[in-house]
Amino acid sequence: xxxxxxxxxxxxxxxxxxxxxxxxxxxxxxxxxxxxxxxxxxxxxxxxxxxxxxxxxxxxxxxxxxxxxxxxxxxxxxxxxxxxxxxxxxxxxxxxxxxxxxxxxxxxxxxxxxxxxxxxxxxxxxxxxxxxxxxxxxxxxxxxxxxxxxxxxxxxxxxxxxxxxxxxxxxxxxxxxxxxxxxxxxxxxxxxxxxxxxxxxxxxxxxxxxxxxxxxxxxxxxxxxxxxxxxxxxxxxxxxxxxxxxxxxxxxxxxxxxxxxxxxxxxxxxxxxxxxxxxxxxxxxxxxxxxxxxxxxxxxxxxxxxxxxxxxxxxxxxxxxxxxxxxxxxxxxxxxxxxxxxxxxxxxxxxxxxxxxxxxxxxxxxxxxxxxxxxxxxxxxxxxxxxxxxxxxxxxxxxxxxxxxxxxxxxxxxxxxxxxxxxxxxxxxxxxxxxxxxxxxxxxxxxxxxxxxxxxxxxxxxxxxxxxxxxxxxxxxxxxxxxxxxxxxxxxxxxxxxxxxxxxxxxxxxxxxxxxxxxxxxxxxxxxxxxxxxxxxxxxxxxxxxxxxxxxxxxxxxxxxxxxxxxxxxxxxxxxxxxxxxxxxxxxxxxxxxxxxxxxxxxxxxxxxxxxxxxxxxxxxxxxxxxxxxxxxxxxxxxxxxxxxxxxxxxxxxxxxxxxxxxxxxxxxxxxxxxxxxxxxxxxxxxxxxxxxxxxxxxxxxxxxxx
Length: 707
Prior knowledge:
Elements lengths: L18 H26 L13 H9 L3 E4 L5 E4 L1 E4 L13 E4 L2 H8 L11 E7 L8 H15 L5 E5 L8 H9 L1 H4 L3 E3 L4 H9 L4 H13 L15 E6 L6 E3 L7 E3 L3 H13 L8 H9 L6 H9 L10 E4 L4 E4 L4 E7 L1 H4 L2 H16 L9 E5 L3 H9 L3 H6 L21 H10 L4 E4 L15 E4 L2 H10 L12 E2 L5 E2 L1 H4 L3 H11 L2 H8 L7 H4 L41 E5 L6 H4 L10 H8 L17 H7 L18 E4 L4 E4 H10 L4 E4 L12 H8 L2 E5 L1
Parallel strand pairs: 3-4, 5-6, 5-8, 6-7, 13-14, 13-15, 15-16, 19-22, 22-23
Antiparallel strand pairs: 1-2, 9-10, 11-12, 17-18, 20-21
Helix pairs in contact: 4-5, 9-11, 10-11, 13-17, 13-19, 23-24, 24-26
């Protein structure tokens, strides 16, 4: 069995050479209790291993090192069988790029599997996606996966497997395939799998797998009919979709959903349309909530198209800028200002081509005298230490550093909502001007309130585009026609002047990446650093719960539980706790990001002696049910029709109509002995495979969700 700890990285420090050390120290000081529990498990259980913090993102580590493609069991009768994996994160699907079947499950399912129980499922339909052609020279794997996400969301592949095949596979590197497989949750599939072929074997060799094992993978897969060649017969699928890779264009996705792809040249219009929606509640137009739901929630219509039809032509950007004066600079922040630009997430940092492209673009920008705008919080959070190794070897790290893309840590950061705080003057300007500022990140999700609670427009983009928008400093620009800045000679510099060619990228990859690099990084992957080794580990087969812990508590799920389940009873006299719209994701139900001071969870932590600076995130406190039940439906962008005109976890207690937090209302109803119901629209519970979206709802006393 393979099990892994998830990243607890939080990019509090950024834009400085000391960011990595500062964030790592903070990570260990905040999460020591959790790490203590994990280290106990590592010692107490056989066949259980923990990859320590500051190593990388689980999915990228699995891709580059842990996955075997073919497993060998020598315990009794020697047996070979295909590698498979389930993980407690949606993007476990990334490993399908290597030909390993895997997908994300909830914690309950994963825990059952760890205890030897089978994972059961209905036999899925398999949708074949035929790929033909070759990507254009300026298109990236990011553009490809955003295109596929848009196509398959419109097609409808929820609960289905997607299998990629066709002549176009030959032009995709395995890293490209992993990028596409990673975002299967975003296009709605259980997984998107690629076949084992010569490219798979090449990747296994490059990443340092032993030659004998690579030969075993080849022999076994060929013997079992699992090895794909140009002569392999085409399978019969439940349904078929086709994509000509040559039609893929430079793209972004946003402002609130990964399937809302826009061509790069339309990103400016996309943002302005989104801004018009935000402001429409103040004028005689369709209500903000209705237009917002139409545009950003389900139905197959793109955000740009829906907003344009609801509001008419795109208005000019209003003049609402706020002046910020610091010791270093004076500048204006306005609607559209990019306040976060982050190269992050295993989706893209597992792909050398887009990382090298970002480094080359940074090099050309620095040589022309360009710099990131001072209001942009920049960060580099790769999913593996191999990334910084090859960026250093290629001589590109200094240029990324000069633009502020210093290493902040190895792990999930901005993508999961751990982007850290914005500078106080920026936050004050956003609040004072009610500004719709933006983030550009190389992640896989941009749901409402996920990236940062103060940032309402979040766009997914390739790493080189992240660098480009840090230079531009705004989304209110058409990078295909307008200059990104001016050089030292005061000449305009366009994106096309900085964009590296495919030949440049390939040459750098060939000269800076080899298998020794992977082997040196992963030789001691389970060891950890001195801080990990210094954690005191409890002895014994049973964990000793600490009543004063705010991170790890003995959960109440087994209290009053009988061996035989209680019979299902009718729900009588229930009240509605919340009335929600469409596409209420698990991020809305159980957010993973920061904990606000005045929230129910914040009050609980304060009452237990935790300073606000040490609140950490909901994701880091999933071992404490008291925090998590208070964080259920606490997303800052949640809109409850029982409390019109509000955002966040707010409702009205009935029948008196008093406005209060959803948690406080649930506790009041519990005291009155009243069961609860949630009403919602389409796609309730989509998004991450997050079991706390079910557990937290249950602990609130909700007996049914009607959606």
